[in-house]
Amino acid sequence: MxxxxxxxxxxxxxxxAKKDFKSIAEQLSLLASRGLTIENNxxxxxxxxxxxxxxxxxxxxxxxxxxxxxxxxxxxxIMDIYNFDHALRHLLLEYIELIEVKMKSIYAYxxxxxxxxxxxxxxxxxxNTTKHSEILAKAEQQRLSRLPHEAYLKHFDDCGExxxxxxxxxxxxxxxxSFLYAISIPSLKKSIADAFGxxxxxxxxxxxxxxxxxxxxxNLCAHGSRLYNRIFQQxxxxxxxxxxxxxxxxxxxxxxxxxxxxxxxxxxxxRASDFNEFKKKLIALSDHFSFVNMRYYGFRSxxxxxx
Length: 307
Hints:
56% of the residues lie in helices and 4% in strands. It is mainly alpha-helical. It has a two-stranded antiparallel ribbon with strand order 1-2.
């Protein structure tokens, strides 16, 4: 609670629900008391210690109701869901990295071709100079922190030269290159979207949206956030054909709020061979963790044929 005393603001402590510390054994006992079958206590205890009771609770939501587990629910089920989600995040990161590198490469090529190797410094090529300055300032911090360890940065620094755009993009995160593209002048955005093979008139905005979507998924994966049963507030922008491939909810509406829809964006941004490789790995992962119901990622039952 915020209070004032003599005109000075201070925080007053408010009563909170008491949360007692529980040992790993007590945590396991609590799960068992709620109906969860524990097949192997030592394995379960190690899993809880390494992965945090609070963190794994989100992976058990589909196995329980009102804090009571369904009769068939086991600790191994939770571990399978958790480990599948972990492996899926790393698989997504592997292929989103290809998209990130592709975007940086095309952006650097197109801006250098049209305006020169140091044109990224020109505020006149960007619609939001404040955001442009923020991106450059962040990249400069990266340059300084990486300077002692990166030979290519040392080279430019020793020569007293500015880093050209084709090397500079390595300092940018996926969010940075996404923002830089979004605030670039229309002609530059169009040339980049054209290089991606997008629609000649609508491609610029579509690529902006797609990069934003990939940034969302990449950041969730990089920070170890749960994808299982996650509802996305910012839904992917899909074509009519892609929307027709989504799973239908019980009320007949299309489910475009889970991970599945974002995979269609990856399919459009990756080379066909790369996406096919990704899909094969995803199928193998699903086969290995056969307990995990892909419906909780928004997948249709026939996703292997449709995706």
